[in-house]
Write a structure and sequence with these properties.
single chain; 192 residues; alpha+beta; Glutaredoxin; four-stranded mixed beta sheet; 6 strands; globular; disordered N terminus
Length: 192
Amino acid sequence: MPLPIRSSMLRVILAAALLSTSALAQSTPPSTASADETLAQLKSQAVAGHKKILLSFGASWCGNCRLFDKFLADPTIHPILDRVFVFADLAAGELPGDKRHANVPGAEKLQASLGGKEAGLPFIVMLHADGAPIANSLRPLANGGTDNIGYPDAPYEIDWFMEMLKKAAPSLAAPETTTIRKWLKTHSSTPH
């Protein structure tokens, strides 16, 4: 088969595949649990596993949210935190008009109810198994206000994240907290 014909056939096959994939995607809407349903599931898992809940609120465009996801998924960190937490990441800051990404239904309302309405992203909350808040990423300031640390990058942000862990996961052993702090410092973009 001459090259131009083979190339044309390949384009037709690719176009057909893309159209059928696009049609399938449009006919099968993604099943997204609401924030309340997700929290109910997390509570059940936390009770069954004798764990706490770690919620992060973020968005697809948020670079610091992706850094926090990377931190949680890291093979050094995940086993430590998985021992004491069940996790969920709820989209709560997607841009209006974004056709590819949407907020989890009820996520903004849940974020606001947990004190993070104007916090920025990521907003991180650690909860008891019954859903009662223990600590969040709003670091108290000397003037009585708060500052959302988001992804803990700067030394004072890492310090606050470690305080959050101390409150929410007192069963973490000293070598585990040392590993977490060392990982955050090593992956920090600010000098320590």
